[in-house]
Design brief:
84 residues
Length: 84
């Protein structure tokens, strides 16, 4: 997988509630202008995904829309208007 670097100051770790040893690490690398999402089990990196900062708002929206009640989600009948 390459060299494992310490998490930058701009980042966070999210632990998987199903397993204490599994977590997601999100870090921003300004020198490369990208976010890196990496999946870990204990001290082993299982995989990484590089996210262009231009795509970050779309990812944030996807997460935030999951927090919104279903009746207020885009495309639901509560927010859709139809013309007769």
């Amino acid at each position: 997988m390459g060299r494992v670097s310490p998490i930058p100051q701009q980042g966070a770790v999210f632990y998987d509630p199903r397993d204490e040893g599994r977590f997601l690490r999100v870090s921003y690398h300004p020198e490369q202008q990208l976010f890196v999402l990496s999946w870990w089990r204990d001290s082993t990196c299982l995989g990484t995904f590089q996210l262009d900062p231009v795509e970050a708002p779309r990812l944030i929206h996807a997460i935030a829309s999951g927090l919104a009640p279903a009746e207020f989600s885009p495309g639901s009948s509560a927010t859709s208007s139809s013309t007769a």
